[in-house]
Amino acid sequence: MELNKIRLYNFRSYSDVEFEFARDANLILGPNGSGKTNLMEAIAYTSIGKSVRYHLDNDLLRNGEESFAVDAVYSDEESIPLRIQLSYQERKKLLKINSKIAGRLSELFSLVKVIYSAPEDILLINGGPSLRRQYFDLAIAQLFPDYLEKLRNYLQAVDQRNKLLKTEFDPQEKRAWDKRFIATLLELYPYREKYLNLVNDVLKKSLEKEGSSPDFTLSYDPVQKDAFNRDEQGWEGSLKSVQSSEIKWQRSMIGAHLDDYLFEMEENNMRSFASQGQKRMAVIRLKAAQAQLIETHTGIKPILLFDDIFAELDERHSHQVRSLIDPNHQIFIASPNEDIAKIFNGAKVIAL
User: Fold this and answer.
1) Which of 11-20, 28-37, 337-346 bottoms out in mean pLDDT, i.e. has the lowest?
2) CATH code where residue 59 lies
3) Does the residue 119 lie in any domain?
4) How far is CA 109 from CA 47, 51, 73, in A?
5) pTM
6) Residues 191 and 137 occupy one common structural domain
7) Which of 8, 24, 230, 342 shows a CA-CA span of 20 to 30 A to 169?
8) Residue 324 parent element (H or E)
9) Is 118 contained in some domain?
10) Each residue of 267-281: pLDDT tens digit?
């Protein structure tokens, strides 16, 4: 899948502008504050229907405006066009796919795959568990779109259960929600386990091919030990063991909504063990593995967005990143530094 052009109307700093892109590499150059990140955010917006930088839709409005629109035209390998239109007005969002109103934003996940990288990605290692859960939930959904429905069902069960725990609940009603919680949890976990196995396999093969050292792997860190291996009966026992704590704190104390992911190097947590440079390269390797998995398992080539990541890398690591990028993917690189063109020779330059 390739992005041919995009039009932005009252999106962030843009009033009304259209950009056309090359099918391979695109350099978006300009000083800080010129709108590079806003353009990258708009491109990513057309793939998931929300801000990849976790902004609310209301925050995407241009100052003083009450509505915005993003209109993108993609094409597949057979040059069949795909038009994605997203508009926002009066706190309501509308998605059109090829001029037809779509029922759910999740329909985008089966059509367009975009992977966004930015310097803030280091927070996947240095930040809290919620950031890692957000990233992996999106990555899993890009590979397995039906994961979104499983996640939605699970979070609804958690929400209803938490509301119940805040009241003097009927034990029978709680048992019903416990069963719903367990059922949705057991549907969710296989996706997380499968994705970790797949991405670790890609990372291992990539590192072996390069002869890179030290090893970098991902592992799952659940609140409840052996979470992937527990059956319905096991989870019933787990809920009984934390029931008094849940009543005291009035919330669910175990489950996928609290679990974490660990970035490990030689079996050590990279958060406290690795250098900043090692952390940045680990996250970039993860994004490259994500791209490979998407293409292998969905047949769709993801579009890669690199938002000023090269400013944080020395020349050696910059060239190393370039070697990790599949030349068959359409890529977008935003940078204030014109010298980046030396690494991406022949790329189309969009000056802001």
Assistant:
1) 337-346
2) 3.40.50.300
3) no
4) 7, 14, 16
5) 0.93
6) yes
7) 230
8) helix 315-324
9) no
10) 899 999 999 989 999
